[in-house]
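User: Sorry, what's this?
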Amino acid sequence: MIAGNPWLDAFLRLLVVATGIPLAVIVLNYLERKVIGRVQNRLGPMRVGPYGTLQAIADTIKLLTKEDVRPATADRWVFELAPYVVVVPTVVALVALPVTDDLWVRNLGLALFFILAVSTLSIVGFLMAGWGSDNKYAILGAMRSAAQLISYEIPLVMAAVAVAMVAHTDVGRGSLNLVEIVEGQGRVPYIAWQPLAFFIFTVAAVAELYRQPFDIPVAESEVVGGPLVEYSGIRWAMFMMAEYVNLVLLSILASLVFLGGWNWPLGNEVGPALQVPLVLLKTFLFILFFFWVRAALPRLRIDQLMAYSWQVLLPLAFYQIVVNGLALVYGWPDPILGLLSGGGMVVAVYLTYRAVRRPVRRPLAAAQRMGV
């Protein structure tokens, strides 16, 4: 407990989450622009404040004071409620996310299920944004957003469930409690025994965040900004805030499920003073990875994006589920799981290379006109 009174303790924990979210968004916005600038041989923000450190704050003030425009033919209630439907589920999911073995807003026995279930509700918000805008580009972007989120949400959930199936607990295997999943890893994180599940989770997380190479739903060259094309000011900022909050959520979740959270590499004897820095360090590494992917990889075609999920990630996720199920039935040790999952990882890398390098299919007549 932070405070002696349980109600005061819960209030203080919620206050930490409520104040930490906007601060984290401002810091991550500046950090991302600096990291991408570094990768692309640029300086990034440099004008406002020393080395541009106040640029994100200036942008926040601009968005808060900018005129909030709504199209004349838009559905008012749907248009104005869409940002809240996107933001609120992502923030609510943080309530069940532990940072240490004793630091959370609410410790849920089904925390992993709760987080994955609640965070998927943002799909409805993007559909509302596209439909309420009464704009053909917004509707097209909303449909693409829903298709991409649904397609990649399935392998992401299956990868997390695969780890939950084989998580070590005091009474055996299998748990959806994130504290028990972390405590069961000890000195060997689950990434060693479930590398295929980690690969699927990471790739699907990039797609869930609409980041390159999976940013087609909001790409200006594709659909003029997608479902957000008619939004401005504070409402547009709410969509961006949801993206960064979701980035932090998935990064912390990956560090807990696959990298041992506050235990690895020091084991279960880690004191409270080191637990928070360990989780924050692993989360920061995931966030930097997402920044690097956005800056380094080109955008996929829409056919590549959809086919990769249904033809590559989903069958491999089923494979991992089946292997873990057999391990539970026959009592296979963790090294066997790691070997079988590692073999699936090799197949995943090969299929990924094939999927990206696949040539564009063109009609015969069009190919002949082009002299191919």
About this structure: Residues 106 and 348 are 36 Å apart (CA to CA). The mean pLDDT is 85. The two ends are 70 Å apart (CA to CA). The longest helix spans residues 6-39.
